[in-house]
Structures are given as C-alpha cells and as structure tokens.
Write a structure and sequence with these properties.
Two copies of one chain form a homodimer.
Chain A lengths: L3 E7 L27 H9 L8 E5 L3 H10 L6 E5 L5 H13 L6 E6 L3 E2 L2 H16 L3 E6 L10 E4 L6 E7 L4 H10 L2 E11 H11 L1 H12 L2 E3 L2 E3 L2 H5 L6 H6 L5 E6 L3 E2 L4 H7 L8 E9 L5 E11 L4 E5 L4 E5 L6 H10 L10 E4 L2 E8 L3 E8 L7 E3 L3 E9 L1 E6 L2 E6 L3 E4 L5 E4 L6 E9 L8 E4 L7
Helix pairs in contact in A: 3-6, 3-7, 6-7
Protein name (chains A, B): Xanthan biosynthesis protein XanB
GO biological process, one term (chains A, B): GDP-mannose biosynthetic process
Catalytic activity (chains A, B): alpha-D-mannose 1-phosphate + GTP + H(+) = GDP-alpha-D-mannose + diphosphate
Chain lengths: 468, 468
Amino acid sequence: MSELQPVLLSGGSGTRLWPLSREAYPKQFLPLGSDDTMVQTTWKRVEPLTSLAPIVVANEDHRFLVAEQLRQIKAPTPKILLEPVAKNTAPAIAAAALCALEGGTDPLLLVLPSDHVIANAEAFRNAVESASAAAEAGALVTFGVVPDAPETGFGYIQAGAGHGVVPVQRFVEKPDAQTAAQYLAEGGYYWNSGMFLFKASRYIEELQKFQPAMVEAVKQALSAGTRDGDFIRLDKAAFAASPSDSIDYAVMEKTADAKVLPIDVGWNDVGSWSALYDVADHDANGNVCVGDVISVESRNNYVHAEGLVALVGVEDVVVVETDDAILVAKKDRVQEVKKVVAQLKHDQRSQAALHRKVYRPWGAYDSIDMGARFQVKRITVNPGASLSLQMHHHRAEHWIVVSGTAKVTRGDDTLLLSENQSTYIPLGVTHRLENPGKVPLELIEVQSGSYLGEDDIVRFEDVYGRSN
Amino acid sequence: MSELQPVLLSGGSGTRLWPLSREAYPKQFLPLGSDDTMVQTTWKRVEPLTSLAPIVVANEDHRFLVAEQLRQIKAPTPKILLEPVAKNTAPAIAAAALCALEGGTDPLLLVLPSDHVIANAEAFRNAVESASAAAEAGALVTFGVVPDAPETGFGYIQAGAGHGVVPVQRFVEKPDAQTAAQYLAEGGYYWNSGMFLFKASRYIEELQKFQPAMVEAVKQALSAGTRDGDFIRLDKAAFAASPSDSIDYAVMEKTADAKVLPIDVGWNDVGSWSALYDVADHDANGNVCVGDVISVESRNNYVHAEGLVALVGVEDVVVVETDDAILVAKKDRVQEVKKVVAQLKHDQRSQAALHRKVYRPWGAYDSIDMGARFQVKRITVNPGASLSLQMHHHRAEHWIVVSGTAKVTRGDDTLLLSENQSTYIPLGVTHRLENPGKVPLELIEVQSGSYLGEDDIVRFEDVYGRSN
C-alpha cells in the first residue's frame, strides 16, 4: 500500500466572511468554531492517517502564516509550494503531485481544501481508508457529500449504481432551486466537496492526456523554482504560462477513471456567515454568541464579539465585530457582504484586505491609537525573529518593552531591554529590533513626526528577503 | 419687565441612549444631531433672550463637564448648583430660584431641561416672549407641546379655552394608547415638556404653600452650602432632608395660577434611539448614518459609528458603536436598552457608567490598550490644568508627549517636556503632571507593573479637592 500524502490547498482569499476574514488573513487561518485555525484543523484531521509531512499549496502572501500555524501545532515540517499567480486548482495540485513524486515514491495524494469544516473527523478518516484501494488501483476518487438540503451553491456529482466507491456518472454545475430539489428527492446526487484521493502519478498521467501544456508549465515552474527553507517558490514566468483551470474541468470530468465515495461526515464549506451559524452550537434562543455578548429578547442571531456587543430585540441577524470594522447583516442576505468588500476596494480602504493587527514574518503590529502627529503601535516579535535594519526620514520612535526581551540596534550601539525599559530612536537613525529570547517580545511603539505612513522606511538588511 | 434668568436642569443620567450616553457622561453632554452638545444647544437657544448668565443645576459628578462645555461656547460664567443627592425637580428649581433672588432682583425664571431638542429655536424664543406678560403678572406658565402622535410616554396637559397663554384645566398622567388617541382627536391636550416660565418669587411663594418643608430645607442647603469658584455646593445634610418631588406634583398641579402656552416648535425629548432617529435627517433609504457607514440594501436604520460599520440587508435596526460597547437593537424595542444597562450594573461592569474615555477635572484619559502586566493610555490635559501630586505602589509609568507641553514633577526634579520628548516615573516616586501651555497637552502613558487598577494611587495634593 502506498503512503498517504495530504495536500492542503490554502489558496482562498475568503472575503465572504469579511470582516473577520480578509485577503491578507483569510478564513483558513482563523479559528472558526474551534480553538484551532481551519488549516490546523485540516491537518489534525488527517495526521493519524500518515507519517508524511503535509504539502501545502499557498499564496505567496500567506507563506509565513501557513508555516507558523503548522509549527504551532507541531506538524511535521511541511513543504510549502508558493503560487506566484493564482491558476485555479488543476495546476496547484499538479505542482503538489510532481513535488510528491520527487522523492522517488508514488504516494496517494489526499487533496483537501483547508477552509472546510468536517464535524466527524473519525468518519472522514474511515472514508479515506475505504477509498484507498480504488485509488491504489488507479481511480481518481472524489468525495461526494450526501446532501441534506437542496443547495444551489454547490456543483453536484451523480454517482453510478452500487455501494461505496462507485464510478462517477456525471458532474453537474450548480443547479437552480428546482433542479436541486429534484436531485435531493431522486437520490444518487452528491455535493462536490473538492476533496480527492488518487496516486500522484495517475493525476499527472490523466492531466497529461487532457492538458499537456499545463503539466509542462508546472514541471518547468517547479524545476526553475527556488527553494528557501520550507518554501518552494514556483517560477513565476513558467507558472504564469500554465493554462488556468479547475481539477474538475481539467481532469475529473474527462477521465474514464473518475470515481466517487459518498460521505456523510458533517461537512460544511463555511462559505458564508449563515453557514457558520448553521454548524455552530446554538443556545436556548437559537443564538450563536462568540465572545462577550449580552442578549435581550433576541433570537437566531450569530454574533462574533471582540469587545462587548449587546443585542436588543433582534432576530436572524449576523453581527461581526472586529477592531476596525463591524458588520451587521440579515442572515439570509450575507452573500452580499461581498458588495461591502467591493466598495472598500473601490475606495482603496485598508479594511478590504488588512486587519488592524497586521501579521509580518517576524510577528505582528497593531495600530492602537493615532493622532495628527503621532501613532501608537503594539508590536509583537516572535522568539528569535528580527525586523529589518531600517531608518525613517519623517518619524522618531519611542519603544517601551512591556513583555519579554528586546535586542535593539541603534546607530552604532546595541542595547538589551527587558520589561519596563525603554529607548528612543531619533529620526534618521538606523535601527533594528530583535527578540533574542524564548518568549514573545511585546513593546509599545510611540511614533512622533509629520508623516507616519508605512512607506517611510529605508531597509538596509532583511532576513526575510524584503527590500522595501 | 423683569430680566429673564435661564435655569438649565442637567440632572439626568440618560441611560436610554446607552452605550453613547452613560451615567458619568450622559446625554446632555453629547452632541446628538448637532455639532454642539445638548446642554450647549440649550443655552444657545435662549442666549439671545437675556443678558444674565445661566444658572445650572447639575449632579456633583458632572460639574466639570458642565463648566467646560459652557466655557467652550463662551457662555457667560454660569452659577452651577451642585446637588449632593437627587431630589427630583421641585427642590432643584427651588434652589435655582433662591439663588436667582440673592441678587436682590426678582427675575423671570425660564426652566429648561438641557437634554431636549427644539428644531425651531426662533419659534421657541417667540413663545417665551409671548408667555412673559402672564409670568410677569404672577402666572406659573408651562409650555405644552402640540402633539403630532398619540404618545404614551409623556404626561399631558389639558388647556382651558382660549388662545395663547390659557389656564391649565388639568394635568394628566401618561395615558394608555386608547386615551392618548382620544386626546389627540379631541384637541386641547398638550405634552408636558417640563419647561416653565415664572417669577422666582412666585415659585417660592407657591412652593411655600404646598411644600413648606422643602423650601426650608433648600434655603438651609443654600446658606450652609459652600461656594467654590463657579460651583455652589448645596449642603448635603440640609438638602438630603428635603422631600423629593417633581415640580408638577409639588406645585403645578396644585397652584391656582398654572397656565399653559401651547407650542409647536419641533420639540423632542430624545428619550430613546428611535426618537433620535425620528428627529434626524434621513437619506434616500430612510437611514440615519452618523460616522463611517457603508449601507447595502438596508433601510430605515439608525447608525452611530465611531469606526466603520457596514450594514447588509437590515431594516429598522439601531446600531450604536462606541470604543468599548456596541448596541444592535430593533428600532421598536429600544426602550429595552435599559435591561442591558441593568445587566451591566448587576455584573459591576464599567460600561454601565463609564466610557472608555474618562473625563476628569483636568482633562481626560482613554485606555487604548491593555495586557497582562501593562496598560497604555492616551492622556489629555487641558491648558493650565494639573493632575494631583501622586504616587503608585505597583506600577511604573513611561510618558511620551505627542502634542503640547508638559511640566513634570518627578521626585525633587521638575522637567519641561515638549512633543517627542519622554520621561520615566519609577514605581514609588512622587510625581505630578501639569499643562503650563495654551494648547491641550496630549501624552501617551505606558504603565508597567503587576497591578494596574485606578485605585493604586496615593494623592498628596489635589487642586480639585480630591483626597483619593
């Protein structure tokens, strides 16, 4: 039996869960209905099935998030394939398959979107195991979710006769409500979950038949790519030359070896706030309250509070409070959240893509206060991490360490600061901040000056390869 | 003709507009639907009618707010009567009347709650002028608002026959819906607005008839009270001995000289969020949006945003966002906001009474960030103001001036700090912060220590008479 190679697809930018999910920190990196983030949960779900480290396909911008979140749950060090441009799932999975084949073995790839919920992980693992023989024998197995409602937001898979893993009869596009109801009544139709199991070599073989240019481009992108720690950076020019297509169109709908295993494992793609409401535990009034919520005579609401949220007499409403944006939406209208995001993008506002707390390779900063000529940030530096050696033309900075230890380079001096110690970086002075310790460093930075934009920075050295 | 002496009643604690209005900073001090606060608007509305400075009756806790807000609009220096305990309107107005009589003249008192909206100030001033002759002749005139809806939240006044100032036929309690509708259909019934015009001496005479103990207690409270700058602090023991009663019960319903002038001046007591919605300008979708609001397919909502609030598909909802609490309420259920406040009080939570930004006699502080062993505050010190000479047992403080100039006493040293300068106050060191300048001083304070409660303070000297 071949080893199982989990492939986590982490390409999504999940704006349907705005304002919690934003481009720079989307859904898969959030703890939605769990203490772990969705990418962490996705890995933990399949970890018992394999001794291999995950292969993750991620957006360049999310590389440190992926690495850090998997590190936090002590996952074996992953290979992280970075897509320089988005090309849909077929090339992404091809890159993962080729990468898996590099070791000289031909594992079973278990392809998993990393932003779905599966309530019954045990049942899912059992399903993977029951699909393994067919995949080992050369089938391209997709997992079809037994529908419990006439959903119009998913594609459907019609299964052939029989039990267990059966041939796919056909893939059907997202149906209208009437057709969806008919599928549900008729039976034998399953939601297309986007999860697959097949031998790495079989996927490449079949892709070669239908999309030879794609295979060629991805091979090029991998061989011309650069390896940098855990990251495998696909070559931009080569990858950009690949056709863009989904695995469904490129392979699954064309191959003679498509099979489907119906699963009933509490799957939910959490594609909207109302979906998140549906999968969560409700209180006696039908409310789902995450955080500090006071509810008076209110029913069937979803509330995510980072501060205090009070509800009075409201029903079927979604309230999502974050540091710098609040959403109040009718639960059956949450798909239109994308219009808010579109408006923010149009207005070039940061809330479209960024949270107030911004994650960096070295940690994070949170802009906690701002005035005409000053800004206050809480800066967190991970153990062992280091900001770039830098200089600002328009601002001075005051640093007060409130937790952990800082190593500060200031001009020609080097200082070690611990809790309750401070220093001052005059305008124009070259400086660097490092955390030499074993616990996170937290400091308060007070910037003072006439211009306080993030772009007033001259970087001299950066361990993360950033020049500006 | 006697001079007009405006008396501003500022006793309310307005929790029906929580979370914007809180006990320590209630409705009358907020700019609701205007650039000025309600107490400022109340003064500006009557300023053209008089050359006298206002008499204000206020809660002890609000004394600096009243003084500061009237100073900001360059009102003549008011006399501010401080009630040591709340005793309803009759004693409060008695204190104002006795105070007005101290100068040896007998002015016409114009008694005004300072938390009501009057859309047509000009019409209101005209009404005051047309009521003056009757008041001058000894009548106790109340202003009755011409009703435009069968409101059940107000008491009504039935007027006698005639035009202009006419005798009151009777006062009636808050009616049920059917009775209110009947009043509206019948005509001759007016809302009891709580605004009055009478000679100071006439009020005292009539009060003496019906509540002699009250007059005695208030006279005592005034004569035994202390005068401290603009403040007249009524003697606590004496004032506490006064019966508690409203001017309506104590005087207006009993006197033979009660008269009423019907007015139609766009009056609204802004007694709830829905009332505030009603008086504000609506956009094309019927929304009232104060602040940064993105509205998608949403109608007839009231939104007060301090950050960004996005609405999607909601109708008839009130959303009020503040730094540390958010209210989402159905517009026809906003009276139940008081249940939220009651819950917060029960749980002894600061949001019941305090905003995140807390006003002090010397300025304000805003707690912008907090961690396990640190807290960050933005501190604003008014020009010329001074914090107490103080010391903390459990925390050190880092101060960074970001605007204006600070005079810092630290142990035996005195420093002058300007923008972009900082200092450090070690734990246990006596210190004082002053603003010697002409513009507000803003500084960022980073507290570091094991206990950061406001009660870790030893005060040695305090210009505002606070010992702890």
